[in-house]
Design goal:
The protein has helices at residues 2-30, 41-67. The protein contains 2 helices and no strands. The two termini are 36 Å apart.
Length: 103
Amino acid sequence: MLRDKILDALFLDAKGNIAKAKANIEVYLHQPVGIGEHSDVLSAIQEQVDIIAHEEERIQVLERHFLDSDPIENLPLEHKKDPFSGHEPPSEGPDPLGMAPVH
């Protein structure tokens, strides 16, 4: 499907940008004098960390809004109410009966 190919390309692009930024950070950490145009190594590393943060956020957006197999999970709580009873689903807290979950 075209949709899947487009989403895969966006996801892989973000992953590739993360890999490039990590490689750059490793170069800066292990051979900082070899990078002539970056006299401020800390600033250069921070730029790469910012790229990683940006791309990780992009991946989260893709996963949350487009790659999630259960779109109901992404709904606000008020939209998750049982249509018959009008009650909200149980919270993820402790079991009200005090029973341990079965695995």
